[in-house]
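Researcher: Here's a chain I'd like modeled. Treat it as a single chain, no partners, no ligands.
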Amino acid sequence: MLALITPTARLHASWAEAYDEWPADAQQDGAGLRLAPDGGLDRPDAFAAWVERLRGQGDATVPAAPGRVHATYWWIVDGDTCLGAAELRHSLDDFLLDAGGHIGYSVRPSARRRGVATWVLGGLLIRARDLGLDRVLVTCDEDNSGSARTVERNGGVLEDVRTTAFGTKRRYWITPPPVTPALPVMGPGGISSNELREWGRSQGFAVPDRGRLPSELLRAWERATEEAGERAE
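Model: Modeled as a single isolated chain. Structure tokens:
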């Protein structure tokens, strides 16, 4: 089942398999590879240090490094298999406004053409809304028709096509989806599967219309319910 997770050193081997599918000079948007230490990420200690650095980029209590903005990183996974990476920038500087946008993501070559990118962008828009962003800028190369379709399927409205330091870019603005439905609460008759499906989709889970509810969704609802109860105490 698809999910966006916080980077973890536990998935080093799977991340490396995904990384090896890319050409050596490929741009992996949203992966945060510019934050990697010199000498590569094949060593477990270097990889773990990089993961911790990625996790710290979204901490707004710590000033962002010069030339950077706060950003939250996720890995795209199916179970314990890494399919790619994603980044949500909390704000825009002049460069990001011109060419980069709020969102970056990349899907490993073997996982493409399966709807993963569309699902990822939808999940990032939910997280952008929860961060308080009322408009999100997403860019793609002018000749990347696949990425353009992904953005447009998620509500992207083209502002312009412009020449930037990184080539000619299509620049789209997207309004994030409405507020997350309330957390379903156990009542005398229990919880309906439709309520859980709606809530799960609002949290970024890929939930089928019929059949058994994914165990990951049930665990997420249980954790959210426990956390809500703790906050109420």
